Amino acid sequence: MNKVMLLSLILYFCMPDSLRAQNIIKGTIKNSATQEAAYAVSVRVKNGTEGTYSDDRGRFQLKTVKKLPITLIVSSIGFESKEVSVQSFSASIEISLEPASVLGQEVVVSASRTVQKKLASPVTIEQISSKEISNSPQLNYMDMIQGLKGVDVTVSSIGFTSISTRGFNTSGNTNFTQIVDGMDNQAPGLNFPLGSSISLTQLDVDNIEMLSGASSALYGSRGLNGTMIMSGKDPFKYQGLSVLVTQGANHLNNKNNNDPVSTSPYYDWTIRYAKQINEKFAFKINAQYTQAKDWVANDASNKNGSGSSLTDPNYNGVNYYGGATSTDINPFLEAALAGDPSLAPIIEPLIGKPNYVARTGYPEYGYLDNKAKLFKVNAELRYKINPKLEALISGTYGTGNIVYTNDTRYQLKGFKVGQYKMELKSDKWFVRTYTTQENSGRTIVAGPTAQYINESWKTSYDGGTGGWYPEYTYGLITSLAGGTALNEAHLAARAFADQGRAELGSPLFNRLKDSITNTPISEGGTLFLDRSKLYNAEAQYNFSEQVKFMSVIAGVNWRLYSLNSKNTLFPDKNKPINVKEYSAYVQLAKKIADDKLNISSSFRYDKNTLFSSPKVTSRASLVFEAVKENFIRFSYQNAYSFPSNIQALQNTLNGYNSFSSGGSSLLLNDNYQFDKYPPYTLESVSKYQQTGDAGVLQKFQYSDIKPQSVNAFELGYAALIGKRVIFDVLGYFSTWKNFIGYANVANTPGTNDVNAFKDHSTYIQYNIAFNGGQMVNTYGYAASVSVDLGHNFLTKINYFSDHIKNKNNSQVNNFNTPDYHINMEFGNSGFGKKQEWSFSTGLRYKPGYFYVVSGGLAEGQVPSSTVIDAQISYKLIKARSGIRIGATNITNQYYTTGIANPNIGAVYYVTYAYNIF
Asked: Signal peptide span per the entry (predicted)?
């Protein structure tokens, strides 16, 4: 008999839920203040495992094997939690929830890989919720991030925003980690996050968490300048069809702001559909398309001096491409004098000093296509094996045309990136594997492409009497002989040499540009053939059931970079280069003193096959609740970063006879022969060219690049006051060792005769990653206040300041930040009779600051900026829709976030939203 009962029990628990004796609880949930449907509200059986969420119409259906009476726990951020007693399965339940302030109720995961209140986080963390996104005046959530405390951004173009924290700010920051649904969002070859290219669509963001500063103890190498964790919406929780259509215009009053583009439309269309088929299976599909005329980088500052194109023959504008080809024309003047000694009165006064002349450059507008396009699509399937175990598979694909800034401007045309994941997870553990596949498309490298175009229509010097420079010299002498003043003679000489030039948009220009940009770098063109891939597998387990006296979390990670650029980005001519990483981590946490003090520590082991020694890093933190909802936090982190694949192995053309290079000594010696033909700093080479004194030449001391590390300390205080005010203040201090920066150097392959430096065509320039020798310190402080003013009014303000000292002046360190930032927000999420109106405003102020672009592209002062964004919205409650009118940078005062990057004006827009969560 006992065997029969046991077999019955086994069959009962193994059979599908549909065959068990189940009862169904149905109901609807509403907002008591507006009578709107309350979506994505958690409905759980008290003291049970069954649970569900309300759908986009507030409806829920919960299956249970429990008997009546049953108590349901109904909860959601933004509402007071409620317990509801169920006395009957036949009647539908109507539940009304009271709105509540969200201040102090936010929970985060990324700070410790466990769910905890944001107030009690051991490190500084900022957060953006889906509700904040839906009420923001910004066009997308990537733009919202620049208003967070401690965050810097560099906007290279519409669609490409680079994020960092605590001062280190540049396009394509390889020391910032962007994680989307557990997947590292970096480009496999370039190693920096891809911005919004394959991240979540606008409608699918559930939550964004921003960890300021070092975070490698939990999230691995390259998290030195911060980590952003993005979570997509669960299709079991967020269901239904949602549509977001934004139509706008930018480049208004362009002539008043030195903007070459006429007023043009801005489009952004997003759609999301999610459906729970039954209690076990759900799916979602997302798509977003953005199109606009991009902002244009049009900085005409002269990199070779203070003169303009009308006054300096050696003019090389920041955003004028082709002028990097520069030569001292004295040898041509001397040859002319030797052929005709009667020219001595004209030529001899000139050759007493160098006379450098640059080729004529092309402005960015009309040269790079400024039609920005981004398209991304995502799909996800989820299957609940049981209430605590879920399997999912997802895929995201993105393509488009965008521009980003590095050692020159790069236009990514038709790039393609895919990211695909499989995962099995429970409430205690997960196993995840994913891959990222990239295709660089037809990438146009602005600087060298323009130089090659110039050389194609007329070579600089053909070795005889022909070429652009001999013609320039002839035109200069002829004009001077005719009595023309020197400056006007140089202008006439340029016009003479430029006869037959491939002008922007001409058939000749287009033919040459197409030919060069479709020919791989390895074959004499400027085309990248990057097809690199990333493969990752990881697992994590929470040992809370096995270890009762403390919290223990442990995990392992394996990663493979398959670098495949066909010798256009890496030295991988013969076959792809494989770089592997292995890591393991453990986190320990314990609450003591009546749970007032939380002590936690983390340890991580990492090995990268490019480097012989592994790295062990750690983090320790204390969080003390001094009084209720008042938390003092202290943390120490020893963080590290293996040099990225770019910093170690890059071998990229960035100009005529100019390369961007990794710091591996193998690369420097084998490819560039530094061991035979030593490099000199480019600054000293320039001095030698100007003075002729070889004593000013300074050799560049190099060694194999090593991992960099930082010891970071932070002290902070966060408090919730009267359930209406949140206050957060912090200070940090960091010490960096083996700091990785960049240096510009040059050598003369084939000869050690330093006289070769006098001729630009005989030496090669390099922008090299290397470790600085001395300690570098960074420090800063920040404060923020959020106030719930009642009646759905909320205001926020934050202030932060970051600084660097002991920096190596021979390095470009990418510490590009003003002395301080001020961000303010004020808005109302619902006012009027039925709270159908809402509005939000934001202000960002930055004083002017000095900005240096890696690779020698440019440096200079970024002007101060005050940017105001605003929107007002109206809900069409019965139509479950809304209309929003707003503008970013509403005053249309153009500003830039970095030298050589575009000037950003206003976008005025109207948005229609349907069924937005």
From this structure: none
